[in-house]
Fold Cyclic nucleotide-binding domain-containing protein.
Amino acid sequence: MNQSPMPSTLKTLPPADQRQLMDIARESSFPQGARLFEEGGHADRFWIIRTGTVALDLHVPGRRAAVIETLGHGRLIGWSWLFAPHVWHLGGEATAPVRAYEFDASVVRAMCQEDAAFGRHVAEWVGGVVAHRLHSTRTRLLDLYAPYGSGSAL
């Protein structure tokens, strides 16, 4: 897939690592309303959005799933594939038709094992996404369920 433009989310990786990932990318698409993955399911792939949007949601017992964040162009969908036990921590649903680059998690994990520098770069990239999602999750849950929200509007 060398001729495709480099997704902006990959620009935090060194150029050689960007090319390595894009070489194994395949194009995929999802109609509006499609579930890409379910919380608790096996995380065996990840995506980078080309067009469309995906809502990340969290199961809340006795309530409708809480949308944590909506992601669009250039954003990484999924981080659970990198860390054992490779189970989705959130769910994901296309809120508009999605075209994305899809990556096989087992192939990328094998690449990380074979090349320590590549593996470190991927772990740092995905770790940054995890930190951002954790913050977004905390803020959203406080907004929904805390008596005074997250306090971010003060």
